[in-house]
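Encode chain A's predicted structure.
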Amino acid sequence: MSRSAEPLSQAMVLLERLEPGAPAKVQANLDSFSPDAAELVLGYAFTDIVSRDGIDLRTREMLTVAMLAAMGTAPSQLEFHIRAAMNTGVTREEIVEIVLQVSVYAGVPACMNAIIAAKKAFQATNES
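Encoded structure for chain A:
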């Protein structure tokens, strides 16, 4: 895959697909930290990795939910990616199964934290 001339623009297009309205919020958050943060973090993550061919976006979001849930250290990112997964076609039932799978391989505490994030994401999705 060749790197785009404007990785941040490409990253923002993908971020908008994951959650409408997210690019402005994320960019404002990162810009308040450092003027280079959005380009460095999002340009790499979303342009160089998430946009690669080989795994469709729906599957990537399912994997991301599983990994963030297993880590157990990024609740706001997990909640965002649960919503993003649902926005790419992952069902609520599939999210439940992913979270339950986490209990076996990452432990019950990680699963319990993921349940909290999933419930928040489900509530936010139902409200929109």
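The chain has seven helices and no strands.
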